[in-house]
Protein 1
Amino acid sequence: MSLRQTLDHPRIGRRAGGGDDESASVTHDLAVARDVLSTEADALKALAGTLGSGFSATVSLLHEAGGRVVVTGMGKSGHVARKIAATLASTGTPALFVHPAEASHGDLGMIVPGDVVLALSNSGEAAELADIVTHARRFALPLIAITGRADSTLARAATQVLLLPNAPEAGPIGLAPTTSTTMQMALGDALAVTLLCRRGFTAADFSSFHPGGKLGARLKRVSDLMHTGAAIPLAGPETTMDRAILLITEKHFGCLGIVDPEGRLLGIVTDGDMRRAMGPDFLNRRADAIMTRTPRVIDAAALAEDALHDMTALDPKVMSLFVVDAARRVIGIVHMHDLLRAGVA
């Protein structure tokens, strides 16, 4: 049954009391919601098919800009423009949102030589954009238009046009900005991520723009969380197990790093190693006789997210990782509890 047929159905199209009508109401709601999603999904597929050299030229224009990307739009397009500006800024492309109405009352001063203007308007005829378009022309600023009409005033004024395909707005009345704003937002994401790739922007770079919350915690570096100095459980290869047990107990990490005189990691002794080595002469055995010789280690510059992955996603699971430098000298240790306290896990 199509959405129109569903809405016109004598039992589904109106809502009354009773169990049957309640069931019909659920059917009606789901039909509307699924139609909205499928309509917007079809539009996104169509949008992906329209991308070509013009999109790449737009990315180059943004990538080579000496200033910021000034994103603007009115109404629903303005709300999308704010989100695009935020996404660009958080992924390595300096950007800000300028409200077109406020621009006409002094905020044009925020748009300076070297900037690129990215203007959103589905119709391309939003009167409030006129002053920003004129300002861009006056200072020879590149103007990128995201619009649904190639013959619109905005498209004709633009340096580059990203044209939205002709797709219906979602819902039975087809008037509220839904499909068009979804395409605008998705196209903004496509620009931001493509620019991210062009710049070689990494997760470590991303972390510097997201220091707060759960995401910020996961993007901390191991060096921010690791224990150093005397807190690190270390011993020489000749250490006997009676002494090793005391060190493991004292340091509270559940393991012991075995290092050479230069501090290079030779192996580790864990609870599992000790259980496997149990025997009559266990306490007199040397640590290097029972240690794991190829322990998992991590770099201080690695992200806390990487440490969490190495502890939990690889086999065998571990609770601690020794942190080593390029010469495999031990410079720290990080424990699962450190990740928990920091909000990483």
Note: Residues 9-16 have pLDDT under 50 and may be disordered.
Protein 2
Amino acid sequence: MKKVLNFDTISQYNDFNNHETLHPLVSVIDFSKAKERTGNKMDFGIYCVFLKEVVCGDLKYGRHYYDYQEGTLVFIAPGQFIDVENKTDFYQPIGNALVFHPDLIRGTSLAGRMNDYTFFNYNTNEALHLSAKERHLVLDLFSKINDELQHSVDKHSKTLIASSIELFLNYCERFYDRQFITREDVNKGILARFENLLKGYFSSDNPTEIGLPSVAYCAGELNLSANYFGDLIRKETGKSAQDYIQAKIIDVAKDKLFNSDKTINEIAYELGFKYPQHFSRMFKKTAGISPSEYRSKN
């Protein structure tokens, strides 16, 4: 049984990677300095961004392979757990990482923006795949942060480092936008599967047995994290995943109102609503008229 490694402080992670602690709340790791190791289960209490030096042409995501060769970025947030599987032999880790403690950003503008960086809650198989130019920029930003760590800690250190990390994460947002675009064909395939999933859901007994389909449920059925799935749907359709689901619910409801003699309450229960008034409220908000008005006009 694998030992679980807990990293609640920067010094703990630095020690694990044979790295000097220059600042108690932030570090830039060069994995080539680490000792050889086998796969481990790791529990993180700190933010980590790994630049994995792997051949991305051999990295499989779903049924598709990526062709970026220079590396991938994986984002880990406090409270997350990862497991390096299929690594029973000793190996030399390669790459770099930026790690920082939540206390570093408290009281800074970055703290207020962390929830905007939804990629910290993506699955590791939804990593950011970098081009050569993007990889060079990431390493340059890591270097600038590391240069600041060489200075003695003073009243400016926290602001400068937090600003540099925020700049780095803003670039990552841009890179993910690029990745969504370059994966357009794959994304459209996911969108089609999403549509088929919803069609199948409402033609089954799931609504009465489970209730309304949630974003988390749909993401799980498509083997995606809820955050990645939500961002993908918004990029492809301009709607949130929740709005997309609600539009589908209303579309199915219109068919039922038009093609059956069932009462509005019966239709609401068939769709998965616990309370018919919630159905009527959603219908009017989306369609502009009440279910009874829609039925009478059609």
Note: The first strand starts at residue 4 and ends at 7.
Protein 3
Amino acid sequence: MKIGFIGLGIMGRPMAQNLMKGGHTLYLFSRSGVPQDLVGDQGIACKTAKEVAQNAEVTITMVPDTPHVESVLFGKDGVAEGLSQGKIVVDMSSISPIETKKFAERINKLGCEYIDAPVSGGEVGAKNAALTIMCGGTEAAFAKVKPLFELMGKNITLVGGNGDGQTCKVANQIIVALTIEAVGEALLFASKAGADPAKVRQALMGGFASSKILEVHGERMIKRTFNPGFRIELHQKDLNLALSGARALGISLPNTATCQELFNACAANGGSAWDHSAMVRALEMLAKHEIH
């Protein structure tokens, strides 16, 4: 299949590589330039997003935030200008569910299908083709692109219509943030009380408190390895979506708000680009104690 891929950063690059390994030809575009190791028989660098869409049957976007998706799709020389009847646009970024529905309507009016398919699993999941992919769109469009998703991920779910994939991703990010906070509190408590946090983590991994975040990010907290990963500034963006959505829905998400404030404290101390497991540093500042 001829696939367009726009956005070749920490996540997009390995995702594109996995599609190439599956035998597909990719038309590539990135604001920062197409990495040379992707260019070859299966990777064709394009000058604009429009050029990508003109050549591809399915165009995938993987960019940081809602305004970036809007610009790539509908800006000058954007994807929309290069689409023709029957093509499919797949946005795998993590963006606003409300705006996603609007983007889908605009793409549908061009006679094309739109699928929102945000992912979870981070850089490791992208490299290992083990991402969780949460999809919103029609069953017919999902069936056409599912073989592509299977080259990038393991747990692939059609959640519902357009916007539902993004809503699911926001829910995912709420759980991740709150669990990072809980693991941070637990290991901080253990360390301050004089116990070995590494051994506490090892013991907890065999019990009901076990989680992927305790396994991966708990180790990061103990070993002080806070290079991203998934940057705090990106998780702040996702929690902004959760909190603005909660206001629109008339509900309260008090612990989500607390986690956002802890991320804000990290950012205020120069930590916007730290891995999101470094939320624990805000707790350590409050306690005047570093996990060791």
Note: Strands lie at 2-6, 25-29, 43-45, 58-61, 88-91, 113-116, 119-120, 131-136, 153-160.
